[in-house]
Design a protein that fits this description.
2 domains; GMP Synthetase, Chain A, domain 3; elongated; 19% strand; 4-stranded mixed β-sheet; alpha/beta; 3-stranded mixed β-sheet; 176 residues
């Protein structure tokens, strides 16, 4: 049990700072915090540091790696013992990506998702037939003269696009 509230608050602040430096394993330019995966950091009744994570989707293959990377970084920073838990509700949404995270995605060459209106979440579908696809701005040149090449990119949460102006391919992080 941690009795010194000030020391506990400092450890939690340090933990947040450490987690801001842990990259997402699939998109290493953005941190777990900027991606919105880290939901909370607190002290448990037993004094262990508790980190609450919400995966981008329940079948995300990177979840175990994210847990391992976060734990390793916190332990290496002397903040152990650490306990991680997954919180799947409310479900993660691309609205949780920070403004800095969106900027980093764009600079990396991935078109960040736009905002999702409340109640209008867009589920990831294996096949979307007949639905019109809005143009996505090219993260390299900003042109809206783009076309979707594939509903899936390197991961299920991204789609593959091509800019017709600069001719460069890019991925778009799907809004969900």
């Amino acid at each position: 049990m941690v009795n010194d509230t000030g020391a506990s608050a400092t450890a939690i602040e340090r933990a947040w700072a450490v987690l801001h430096g842990v990259p997402d394993p699939e998109v290493p330019v953005i941190s777990l915090c900027d991606l919105g995966i880290v939901r909370d950091v607190r002290r448990g009744d037993d004094g262990a540091l508790e980190v609450v994570l919400t995966p981008t989707y329940s079948g995300c293959p990177a979840t175990e790696q994210i847990e391992q990377d976060a734990t390793a970084a916190l332990v290496a920073a002397g903040l152990g013992p650490v306990r991680l838990s997954l919180q799947r509700a409310p479900a993660w949404t691309t609205d949780w990506i920070s403004a800095d995270g969106r900027r980093k995605l764009r600079e990396y060459g991935i078109a960040p998702p736009g905002p999702v209106e409340a109640g209008a979440a867009v589920p990831i579908r294996l096949v979307r037939r007949g639905a019109p696809v809005a143009s996505i701005a090219c993260p390299r040149c900003g042109s809206l003269q783009t076309e979707r090449l594939s509903a899936f990119g390197s991961t299920a949460c991204k789609a593959l696009w091509r800019c017709l102006s600069c001719r460069e391919p890019f991925e778009h992080f799907k809004p969900i």
